[in-house]
């Protein structure tokens, strides 16, 4: 099929035939939209409308729909005239009926769902299924062909649009921003995305701010400021606004169409000029990208008044303007007149199929917006070329060797990934790439930056595969748009602040859950998080930066789409991330520290351990073959695992007869029963690891109760004692922080003593000594501002003599940005 | 003390004495800031600086601090000259040392913490405690006098500032916005707050956009767009920008101070003019409020280069520019020179107290920004005048009477609250007040709106106590600012989308936790949520609008600050909300439906039940006195309770011999052990309610595993079977939705049969019939789009004949906005 991106205008203005086609498309899609909201039967009004033809429960949103249909019709003309590959993202996602209607006229809907056929029976099914039990949602959704954006939760239309445009240099993404949505924070900052797009190598986003004036029950801010302020605002955001207004007077639709077609032509020519310049001058200054302000009445073309109240052009048109069409003749007749106002007899043939003139405007094949392959990103997805992560392993001759900075080690690997995938892999970060220590990737790419440069900028360029803006919303939205269009990437953030996008994660997980149930939606790359600067090492920042609860949030979503990993050292982090980058249709949450810390496993051991997801670390266990342990000590997460191992060290010294099994968990979902999560262990496996009757002393990275939630059905659960973060802590030393939350080595040994009744008098005095040592450690921290050397420089016995004892303490005060 | 808000300029320009005072204040606070970050001892450099005087761990943030100190000094002059009550909010909260330094010079710090005395010993303690174990956080925090804003998580400075300004007509809130923070979504939309402020009855926010050019490791967007774009942006937001730039050349500090003093005078005069006009013309058009763009180098006045790299004016100054002051002589000497550059000997006397000239600039008493009573809101808090909630009760002659719309009933009560408290109670909503059906409050107040009005606007006015903008971030931020300054309010939102402010809730809960530990911080009104349009009734909107996980998120925070209530009907909702509005220092999450539903309790019963928090509903139980039940059926939340009661109805009919105890829980925290939460039940209470050995079949509003987390330590936990939301559902009928997640009446009875082994053959056949009935109910929904009449119109036996059977079904299709 011919595509001819960024061509100039081919005619001086819309032809009569085009205008007729636009109007027919608009009328047909409006008709089909109203039909979906209201009708159960009689889809072509071939009979007089009766109450029985009306749905008993009227659920859906009309208000935004006619505007969306209007834009779709005009984009169709533009696409056909210019052969411009174009994708359509609509912020007001509750305008679902409009997108379904256009997709039906396009032919895509019937291709995707043959049961919705091109005849009266198909129309009846099309109408009935909308927002109906067993049917389709009222919003744009995964079920909607051509869509990557649900829009149920508002605010992310532009972030998604720019995410789709990255590295798709021929693609136009037309993105409708509702004026309600425009009030949200994420949308308000997403206009600045133009500073992160490269005219030469990325596609173009055309924002269309649709001012229909009202939200659910209020006017909108942007519709009620002066045009001067609105124009200033858009210019301030770096856009060139084209203001279009229609529907407020008795101007004919023909005239309106001619005017809007001219605006769209002008805008597309401006874009073509920018793209042409970028081709010859990739370092061109950031252009003022055009955008359109489109002011039309809310619910445009619906009855002007209903029950004596202004409806068209009012918030009353937001949802279902005629709420009693099944209950009163007056509403019923108004509905019939409304539907007939679109002239269905001029739009559909005898059998119920759209007439050729109705669909004459549609482009063909993949140029149909509802058939854009980018909107079913799995179709276009290419596997990443992944270097062998083993090549980036740190050498671990003995357990406890090091220290290594896990995320820095991962950065080396990611640099390899970045170098091997120069057009379909990106890293997004809210100004935390370097702070999270994966900045090695900047050896092979730059941070994209299309605002002003200054002489001492480092690694900033018009083209770059790292995208950093201090907005978690933007990072998440861009990444989602990038993944949904079939590319790969990750988001790195401080652990605490990833909660900023809790709700965006929810929507993406829901999208994945539904997509997996649609055979025509092809798998897309997983959404990978790398959360560092985690709860246990907020030495600089303290309490506000401590929150491990994203894990808890994530595991509420469907088990088949969420994965949580807590690698305890550099090599396990490498093995974990390689796995994540190969996976599809998941959300992978990986939490790892950036501070220097001992490594425990060789690369081969790490691979085996990560494959199992949870397992015994023999080097820290002393249970003779064939015997049962007296106690199981477990660590989940890097700092907790280190403290748990330090506890084992104390036990070896002080309670040498105690048989200890050491377990580490890297894949948190292993703890769940197998029927709850695909990664879940069988009870047999769990019992073999943790025993059914021995005390389990566990140090866990997050809120301890999550572990109980995951394991309460296990036989040995009543023996499980978990230490984790309890919202205690402030700006303090690492060990003081551990002590504040009772996951420190001393407390863990005290826990062992408390739960192994067979330990006698010796243990009691040891307990007292440990208690005193904790007090001493706290005193030291409060006096000197750093941890007791014996604590800070603790080294696992096997590694003593191999490690520079001062390294960890020194590194902890390093000047790295945090 | 004299206060004289909104006076005009008293002199033509800053006097020499004023300029000298400003500069001394600035130098002293800069000195004290650097001292806090670096010094453990030798606070006045009376000895040569040695490595031992330097902290071993250098943690803190310098970059933003000198700019904050500069503004503080200038505001001091303005306050003193005009006697203008002024509060200071700084977005870059990591500039903690600056605020501590100014508060120390003000005298407030020593008044609050006498140990930090006005001498060398006090200075030493001041320096040591900063970002030190057992000391104070590195950020502005609850510990900082004069602060209501932590700033660890960026984005909310302006929302908090406007929240503080509401209903404080004499108060100026000077709010510094960092240019990093300015990139966040919440901040980007919060500039629009000026459309929600009333010049006549509210205070004034003076935004100061501090462009120091860099974030942690990147330049900032707003520092790298053209001045024209920046000015356009601010104008577009409705502000009049005053651009000030300094520190980029060799202009003397004296000259810089004179210029900034003039800008501040001009701005304050513009504000005075607006306030004067508003006094005589309360309906004046929305003014262009002035704001200041202040461009200065990051880390201003620190060493220009360190280790050969540009530091002042670079991202390298973000944190601790001299990271090796304890390790290298070069850094040590640079540090000493840097400290001496402020001339400490001209600033402090022999004993170490600030010289009179150093503090001459400070206003007195409450005019000191660090002593503003609004910043310790509990000082100013007045109890709400609460009407008797019993007066708003619905009549419940028999259980099952109704239906009533719970939130609408609550709306009547809130109208009474609103009418009785006309200057210290507000409701915030993201365009969901009417949708959540508490719009009765609009009978006695308006929605504040200072953008353009149109003729058919309803309840919109320049003055109004309902604040609606489609931004959950704004609503939360405004409410926090309002509460922290001692007033009362609530936020109503759809349940699913409250996750948008998960991270803001985190920070507020942390703030409350710390504040409670500070005796000088007085209790403030609780943050009250009213979450409606909840997971079980998303008939219009489907899957994207279904998420009950905010509860799970909330209960991760400290037990002493969080409360979760799930009232099952109108009267329990009334009793619950009255309790919440009287409480202090909590976050109260209240979840209640807006759809018509039966009521179960009379007002007296509701009061008793809410006082207990959880209890047996005798009307639905049939256990003879002194006997044990065969099964406990429990409901938590309105829809689950209704389904659980409908299950009891089936059991009465089909298994009349089964002894059923019915339990309802309204205060979720009652389920926790008493040592985990102040509301927790003792084991004895729990066992009495739920038994230790009988099956408990529970229908719960949210994710079922939370209940297990709360109860896993209870004796009878292994008998507890919870049904709740499992991420199954789409746009569908209410009962179909219940069935999709297995909390429907039929499934609950099937659960009873499965877990009461004594039920015999009859039960098995009943189970089969229930299974068939579920299939029939699903078939009906998919055929007709509504629920089986026998299901939709089900009425509790006691109420049959009293209830119009069609009401609930009819109401469910009503045209109310959702």
TrEMBL record, chains A, B:
<dbReference type="InterPro" id="IPR019790">
    <property type="entry name" value="Xul5P/Fru6P_PKetolase_CS"/>
</dbReference>
<feature type="domain" description="Xylulose 5-phosphate/Fructose 6-phosphate phosphoketolase C-terminal">
    <location>
        <begin position="594"/>
        <end position="796"/>
    </location>
</feature>
<dbReference type="Pfam" id="PF09363">
    <property type="entry name" value="XFP_C"/>
</dbReference>
<dbReference type="InterPro" id="IPR018970">
    <property type="entry name" value="Xul5P/Fru6P_PKetolase_N"/>
</dbReference>
<comment type="similarity">
    <text>Belongs to the XFP family.</text>
</comment>
<dbReference type="GO" id="GO:0005975">
    <property type="term" value="P:carbohydrate metabolic process"/>
</dbReference>
<dbReference type="GO" id="GO:0000287">
    <property type="term" value="F:magnesium ion binding"/>
</dbReference>
<keyword id="KW-0786">Thiamine pyrophosphate</keyword>
<dbReference type="InterPro" id="IPR009014">
    <property type="entry name" value="Transketo_C/PFOR_II"/>
</dbReference>
<dbReference type="GO" id="GO:0016832">
    <property type="term" value="F:aldehyde-lyase activity"/>
</dbReference>
<dbReference type="Pfam" id="PF03894">
    <property type="entry name" value="XFP"/>
</dbReference>
<dbReference type="InterPro" id="IPR023962">
    <property type="entry name" value="Phosphoketolase"/>
</dbReference>
<dbReference type="InterPro" id="IPR018969">
    <property type="entry name" value="Xul5P/Fru6P_PKetolase_C"/>
</dbReference>
<dbReference type="InterPro" id="IPR029061">
    <property type="entry name" value="THDP-binding"/>
</dbReference>
<dbReference type="InterPro" id="IPR005593">
    <property type="entry name" value="Xul5P/Fru6P_PKetolase"/>
</dbReference>
<dbReference type="Pfam" id="PF09364">
    <property type="entry name" value="XFP_N"/>
</dbReference>
<feature type="domain" description="Xylulose 5-phosphate/Fructose 6-phosphate phosphoketolase N-terminal">
    <location>
        <begin position="15"/>
        <end position="379"/>
    </location>
</feature>
<dbReference type="InterPro" id="IPR019789">
    <property type="entry name" value="Xul5P/Fru6P_PKetolase_ThDP_BS"/>
</dbReference>
<protein>
    <recommendedName>
        <fullName>Probable phosphoketolase</fullName>
        <ecNumber>4.1.2.-</ecNumber>
    </recommendedName>
</protein>
<keyword id="KW-0456">Lyase</keyword>
